[in-house]
Amino acid sequence: MYIDINKVTTISSLGGGPIGAGWAAHFLSKGFKVKSYIHDIEEKSSYETIIKTAWKSLKEMGLHEEASLKNLTISSSLEEVLHETHFVQESIPEILELKSNFYKILGELLPEQIIIASSTSGLTMTEIQKLCGTPERTVIGHPFNPPYLLPLVEIVGGKKTAASTIDWAFSFYQSAGKKPLAMKKEIPGFVATRLQEALWREALHMVAAGEATPEQIDTALINGPAPRMAVQGQCMAFHVACGSGGMATNLDQFGPALKLPWTRLKAPELTDSLRNQMVEGCETMSKGKGFEEMARQRDKSIVAILNAIKDSR
Amino acid sequence: MYIDINKVTTISSLGGGPIGAGWAAHFLSKGFKVKSYIHDIEEKSSYETIIKTAWKSLKEMGLHEEASLKNLTISSSLEEVLHETHFVQESIPEILELKSNFYKILGELLPEQIIIASSTSGLTMTEIQKLCGTPERTVIGHPFNPPYLLPLVEIVGGKKTAASTIDWAFSFYQSAGKKPLAMKKEIPGFVATRLQEALWREALHMVAAGEATPEQIDTALINGPAPRMAVQGQCMAFHVACGSGGMATNLDQFGPALKLPWTRLKAPELTDSLRNQMVEGCETMSKGKGFEEMARQRDKSIVAILNAIKDSR
Description:
Two copies of one chain form a homodimer.
Chain A: E1 10-14, H1 18-29, E2 33-37, H2 44-61, E3 72-75, H3 78-82, E4 87-90, H4 96-109, E5 116-118, H5 125-128, E6 138-143, E7 152-156, H6 163-175, E8 179-182, H7 192-208, H8 214-223, H9 225-229, H10 234-241, H11 246-254, H12 272-286, H13 291-308
Parallel strand pairs in A: 1-2, 1-4, 2-3, 4-5, 5-6, 7-8
Antiparallel strand pairs in A: 6-7
Helix pairs in contact in A: 1-2, 10-11, 11-12
């Protein structure tokens, strides 16, 4: 039904802000032709500046052999930008009325086999796709800022999104050098933003209560959990820290700590089902490796990170 | 009153677990003599294994010219370990009764000019120091696991801790290659653990509600916020992401998003005072740099991180 992923060579990036430009830079670096739509042609020079800045980093990451800034065209004609495109990444402003009307137009202009993905972070696809005549092929593909560097793309459909659209988007982003995550439910904030937002709100509470300054919060993160979290997510960090007992030990022994006032967020009830889901998830991620091996791998990566950014800290 | 920091050459690390051994490894790598106390001499070989594992990473980080594993002695005689020491880092089990009795003994055995720091993560110094005859020189110096790699040490005193003790500990940890943070208030979880715990509880809620799997949570963190957070804490990440308007734009424009259900943790009231503290904190951290410069620096560091750990991801 949808276009063969291996035949995607041309991508339309819609929206003139840092997210639209960031996506354009990413796809260019992977060797795609990119046709960018900006609402106002006056924004062209600031758009190009973002691309050029991103390009420095993308070169340091390693470009695809066919990657070139010459593969970019910028236009304020939507028809022109959508002509003969193979995939659409939409990053226009986060205003529901604007977006849902835009999807109505996209639905009319684009052949049905072309997937339309939205970068939205605050809206749901169920809301966005309401006026679209072909909502089955619309899906959220939410990047993390800066989108040309951070690999995460959170994928989630709306009520009318076809399951095959989600599969296609997952495979496509993966083939385009991203790390996709297909969500199980349509919830506000997706996965990464929810986790970050919990941390952020606790940070604001601490500043409001005179418990820490913004500088202390950043010092704590940069020098504490963050370098480890770039290597092991919070689940695996606790799994490996608890030795051979792993996540089971963490939850069985330290479960009562969830009741302690270590954050303003109350913990869920630690049911058997939750315990087992956490334990099984960590065992799957361990891929049969022992904790010593995983701890050593963690340490090597933390050392590599700290050494890599030593001069900038 | 306290010993001259430049004259500290011998450190006692008390406690036979991974934290005690991790501290010993850290101080050894910085060229100190370390006298380790383990409760049960049977634990000596597992203690040495932790040190040896840590040493591999510490070598990759770069050792002090006088650093040597020969500078380590391990004993189960507390008197022997405390004899002629210049600083005590205590990491015995997190049981209040055990710990407060231990501080009573430490108070009797150690000359008054020797600072005693506790690695505790779950207890307060006000509780720990209760039975100690010389509580003024006792303080918390809480590391982040693994303590031989992550630079953060959170410092906070109890009700009876002298201000000069906190100053001494701050300067000492700094001179010993750590990144200390002197807390403003004695609160459970300190700074880093509170932030991490908020994120962790949101993660557990999401798994419990069927919104995400443990694997998805770790995928989201590793490929999304974490590599950036190792470079910029959450405050500076938002400050730089909002362009020239910085944190002020973030709070003034996106403040209403704090009310959205993007996490189960309710946000504090965004008062003028909180807004201004956040803005001023970020301006201080910016040190006069423009956002383009900070964004480019962020990107360079993220590239360095992603390239450094490419093979292990």
